[in-house]
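Summary for the steering committee. One of the milestones for this cycle was to obtain a three-dimensional model of the protein with FVH bound, which we needed before selecting residues for the alanine scan. The sequence and ligand used are listed below.
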Amino acid sequence: MAQNTLEKTSVTMLGLGAMGAALARTWLAAGHPLTVWNRTPARAAALAAEGARVADSAAEAVAANTLVVVCLLDDTSVGKVVAGADLADKDLVNLTTSTPDQARARAEWARERGARYLDGGIMAVPPMIGTPEAGGYVFYSGSRTVFERHQDTLGVPAGTTYVGEDAGFAALHDVALLSAMYGMFAGVAHAFALVRREDIDPAALAPLLADWLVAMVPAVHQTADQLRSGDYTRDVVSTLAMQVAGTPTLLSTAEGQGVSTELLSPYLDLMRRRLAEGGGEENLTGVIDLLVR
Ligand code: FVH
């Protein structure tokens, strides 16, 4: 049931895929007057039944409100969809996943058309939208004016974290976190592969694995401290020299279990390179410098 719509900012939503529809639904439920458009009109039917106004074109939807939120498949679809709309004096919030360079180019593109631009990187999946306890949030970067003006409205579907005026920073933060996530998934895949052929219940390993990863998470903060200070030996408990000495055990165990080391080896190779360059008293922070060279 929609709440009182008095004084609630009107929102235009372009894109009603899994994510766009979830976002739209929370604004409707919170009482924000909502105009929607989607390339495939049938996807708007459910929202229309819940009170959304369905525009016949993207241009018509953009014309309806100052705050225009876009959540489409990719940056190319954003260019196509918004191309025919008059963006003059609009607050354009683009929640489509893009690269930092795409976001910066899109910000410039919007500025040339008279719009203020805010980019977003969504750290949530659709079921987390409108569910604050799920912990989902959106990185925002670009126009601080747009962010501050609409922070309350943008905070309806998920938390908001503003990371700077560089329009590319939201995408960069998004990709940094996702990249770390895939690194973690790579390690988890290797761990499960190691026990795959044994009489070890994956469900018994899972909590051990999860607890171990959680116990290791504070290392993220130590890495940040070392990067800021430039001293990669600060507060080191497990030296790189010691860790590299243990790598044959990891590789031999994988071989013994009949498991490919293709996920693990690239990281171990970087550890060995850093050691060869004299980083034996550090922990793992020096690997970062090998990557950015
Ligand atoms: N769903 C997720 O788990 C992730 C979570 C993190 C953020 N992503 C990003 O959100 C963007 C939208 O994702 P989505 O889940 O809504 O994606 P779809 O359900 O596939 O919907 C895609 C929408 O884009 C429309 N569309 C695609 N191509 C075009 C085009 N050439 N012209 C106009 N519209 C286009 C599509 O329309 P239709 O197929 O229904 O006609 C949908 O509205 C995305 O950047 C994720 O990376 C989601």
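Key point for the committee: The chain has a mean pLDDT of 96.
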